[in-house]
Amino acid sequence: MQALLDRKLLFITGKGGVGKSTLAAAIATLQATRGRRVIVVEVGDQSRLQGMFGRAPAPAGVEVALEPYLSSISIDPDLALLEWLQALGGRISGRILASSGTFQYFAAAAPGARELVSMVKIARLTRGGDRKRQAGYDMVVVDAPATGHALGLLGSPQTFGAIARVGPIAGQTRQLQELLEDPAGTGYLAVALGTEMAVTETLELNEGLGSQLGRELDAVIVNGLLPRRFTTAELDRIDVLAGNGHEHLAAQAGKLSAVAAGGAGAAAAPADLSSLASSAARAARAAHERARFQHNQLARLRRRSFEVLGVPFVWGAKMDLASIRAIGERLGRKL
User: Fold this and answer.
1) Using CA atoms, how far apart are residues 59 and 73, in angstroms rounded to an integer?
2) Sheet of 38-43, strand order
């Protein structure tokens, strides 16, 4: 497999809430540290990456430099469509056009129009050629919407191309379709959690890519994996503690109480220590079962011959830049 990080354009999608934005940021920061000019595109009314880097959210369509070699931009599909129609309408102001029924009628009557003009903006970032930036970025990382909307975005050239078969729009749709179908230039990465629903949605995403673009996912990242900490023998001992080991625990607790009574401070009651140990044993078993289920879902993906990578659960109050960079370095060794 050609290295995924060598592609010019990388789409990252998956079920909502699986950590797409975090993984997009991790990959982008990794590439920036390697000296590649990277921009992260957020589609929709969002600018999470700018907040991660302590920047105030910029208006949609404005490229923001976050650090050397790394920028971000958000694309609002409604605004992108309005700008496109305004360009066609010449001197008609955006305010007048937006308030007219024409804009709403066109948006409703032309399926895929919003998504198409968003895709045109994304493609331009790979090519460059505007007044501010003559050269395209070395890599464009698209933090795409959740699976269903992402497939709508990726299918817009085909959808809209069926309507506009001649003229400049038809030419743009063909160019976009070629870009999205090109395995040397464009890569597709899914992010999932180790849950049945997220993995099922990933499989549906792969089927959608196949039917729309003749492509498959280049890799799947399973985010937030818990470690498998216990051996079979250790689990057997945990089961004893959680189930039939209360008498043993009480005896041990009694010994601890006797020792503590000879020193300063109050001793814990045997029943309290027994209850605490039993609760800890049940918690350990529950953590093991959750990790086992996650890794079973990982195996479910690997049986489909996907390139599957695991990212460990990050323990902390929030995801900071140091954690994002660490995830990027880990992925860089595998991708």
Assistant:
1) 9
2) 64-67, 70-75, 38-43, 139-143, 9-14, 186-193, 219-225, 308-312
Q: Who's near 21: CB < 8 A, 6+ residues apart? A: 42, 48, 49, 143
Q: How far apart are CA 120 and CA 170, in angstroms?
A: 12
114, 81 contact by CB (below 8 A): yes
Q: What backbone phi and psi angles, to 5 degrees, belong to 331?
A: -65, -35
Together in a domain, 131 and 249 = no
What is each CA distance from 29 to 68, 167, 321, in whole angstroms?
10, 39, 9
Rounded Cα distance between 36 and 16, Å, is: 28
Closest CA to 188 of 11, 1, 7, 2: 11
- Residues 279, 199, single domain; the answer is no
Shared domain check, 135 and 28: yes
What letter represents residue 221's amino acid?
I
Claim to verify: residue 116 and residue 256 sit in the same structural domain: no
20 and 56 share one domain: yes
Q: Which pair of tokens denotes residue 316? A: 């902390």
Structure confidence by residue, pLDDT tens digits, 30-76: 999 999 999 999 998 677 888 888 888 888 889 999 999 999 999 99
